């Protein structure tokens, strides 16, 4: 069983799918681990560290030759996979709902090439799969980094400071969308000394917000308040709810210095939470970080990969925020992949054998076909 780890080629991608730590663990399971030279460089993991862990470091062709499993952070280019074993697994974040060359087209190409593509972002949200969940591990870091990015763009301090020259008041920070990223954003903004409030469509988050010492901002008594969709994800809200939420947010947002938005609905464009008029109502110098910018954005005017200024307000739209902390993001991503494959490792077969619940959830392609119920619309 040969596991190959390739250097990532997507723009701005600094993470790597295995660290020396996880390479060593795969070797201990009995796998041969091959790393493309330089794969860990941008995440501060040197080739020699992989060698010391028992992996073989070589060029791309040697890395792929006879590989049974190819690990990636993002999906590797299907045209650049020659030499793998027939029916090799591609285990990575595959962006299956994305359009075009970095999304669905790539998945179709994996099917055509006979690969078995396993999309880690389709990991079910069940307790036993928590340690395998790349969305959680990467969102956690993104939520943290979003607040640091906001703090460095903000021309004022976060904490209240009483100085001989007078008092600096605490920044008011508002977190919209309290999933994994939002909770970490609340905790980080609190640690920096901001006054924090937060909102979500799932009423279960109210207690979580309070337990972190922040103030919940919630629409009350409107039909459709319970926004829990399937599998712990948010569902689409009623029009009545959306109108009430927009009104509440309007009055609250005008008083905020920092806003972090994280709201996502799987398989759909991100919900629009902040209009241009609401941006205009904020004080000049305020900062908004839109973590959903690559899924269409929660904030009107946000541009992926850019920091734009609208009405004196900075709207930060960094792409791939987890990759801005490449060492930790790779360490957690790599452990997610290791936890996944090792949980299903069949000692006799010397390879992972997936069960139905998790296998069917993550498997996109097999035997030349798309086989995933979410992609087939079943
Ligand atoms: P997510 O990334 O899908 O969405 C981010 C947040 O935005 C969610 O809290 C969502 O409710 C919220 N949102 C969506 N539309 C909104 C709107 N219009 N206005 C305001 N907020 C909106 O969510 P996530 O971070 O993946 O986490 C969602 C839940 O799933 C959490 O409770 C998390 O703890 C749970 N979870 C469980 C597991 C597991 O058990 N293995 C793994 C991951 C997440």
TrEMBL record:
Annotated ranges, domain Alanine dehydrogenase/pyridine nucleotide transhydrogenase N-terminal: 4-142
Q: Transmembrane ranges?
A: none
Q: Does the keyword Transmembrane helix apply?
A: no
For this protein, the record's InterPro entries field holds: Ala_DH/PNT_CS2, AlaDH/PNT_N, AlaDH/PNT_NAD(H)-bd, NAD(P)-bd_dom_sf
Protein family per UniProt = Belongs to the AlaDH/PNT family.
Give the protein's function.
Answer: The transhydrogenation between NADH and NADP is coupled to respiration and ATP hydrolysis and functions as a proton pump across the membrane.
Supply the name of the protein: proton-translocating NAD(P)(+) transhydrogenase
